[in-house]
Amino acid sequence: MTNDERPMSNTLRRYLHPEQIREMSLVLLIVFVLLFFSTQIANFLSPRFFNRIAADVAIVAVVAIGQTLVVLTRNVDLSVGSIVGVTAYVVGTYLANNRELNPLAAVLMAIALGGVLGIINGAIVAYGRVPAIITTLGTLAMYRAALVELSGAKTVVVDAMPKWLQDLPSMTLASFNGFDIRPLVLIAIVVVILFQAVLSFTNFGRRLYAIGSNPDGAKFAGLPSQRVVFFAFVLCGALAGLGGFMFLARFGNITVVAAQGMELQVIAAAVVGGVAISGGQGTMFGALLGALLINILQQSLIRWVSISAFWIDALLGALILLAVATDALILGRLRNLWARSPVQMTEQDVKRVVMEK
């Protein structure tokens, strides 16, 4: 390498990292998918399609942000779909019986309920030392079964909801040539920006990366790993609760099986978006792009050909496998070229985080 090439290489390593390459490749892939299906489906790029898919992306993205917090610590929360369903059903039932409830109170109720369920997950994983996949697989079934038992399997209908909730999904905050920005989309954007800032600028965010990147180093350096993992699950539950409120507003008619299977979409969004299942790597913007790609593919396949939901789920599974393989084979090599990426923490980096406490 010449002297001229070395500064350029160092500059690239400083300002362009493997995670950013993954995000740029996702943007290009999303553009390719949109262009391909625009040639196959009439009026595919219409404002109507954008407005419909934006609400679905917003819900998945909000829950995927919470999942990202957990996955960064080398854990996973399989119960998020059940938390979304439970929250949507409970809050919907309460609103049906208390139509005068303030909208902000309804949102806070959903977040609090999701947070309580997240506390259960976090306490068992962080302090009970039960593997996260076992814990959340159990609570996935327990939360759903408790809902079925306590509700009597009744359906919450949209006509019983307050008018403000019925109007919320179609409310337009801004419009550009028919492409509308609606409240659910704005909520998702705010959540993504807020939690990306948490990861980038707070000790809590740095500790998430540190614990996921080097658990032994984090323990050796004295980081409060149990507390950090616990709060990651609590925040994941709270965001799933917010997603439950958004799900209620989006669909209105809620049954006890609402959001069943959403955990696969959410995990796929995070992993496809570049959040390493082995922990310590990923961004909230990547999770958002993953949610966008997955929902575009889902909606496009439904409109393109008549296929069963099973094959759509199979596609999500294939995307997860492809994303993990890509991360291991390609991005792994890129990370070796970037000797010290900001989100790859060595033991020395962990010690630095401790010094900043």
Short description:
It contains 15 helices and 2 strands. By secondary structure, the protein is an all-alpha fold. The protein has a single domain (46-355), classed as Orthogonal Bundle (ABC transporter involved in vitamin B12 uptake, BtuC), CATH 1.10.3470.
How is this structure best described in words?
- By secondary structure, this protein is mainly α.
- The protein has a single domain, classed as ABC transporter involved in vitamin B12 uptake, BtuC.
- Helices cover 72% and strands 2% of the residues.
- The protein contains 15 helices and 2 strands.
- Strands 1-2 form a two-stranded antiparallel ribbon.
- Helix 3 crosses helix 13.
- The two termini are 40 Å apart.
- About 3% of the residues have low confidence.
- Helix amount: over 70%
> How many separate structural domains?
1
- Radius of gyration, CA atoms, in whole angstroms: 21 Å
Shape: globular
Q: At CATH's second level, what is the architecture?
A: Orthogonal Bundle
At the fold tier of CATH, the topology name is ABC transporter involved in vitamin B12 uptake, BtuC
Run of helices and strands: HHHHHHHEEHHHHHHHH
The CATH class turns out to be Mainly Alpha
Total strands: the figure is 2
- DSSP strand (E) fraction? under 5%
Largest sheet: 2 strands, antiparallel
- Distance N to C terminus: 40 Å
Kindly report the spatial arrangement of strands forming the biggest sheet: 1-2
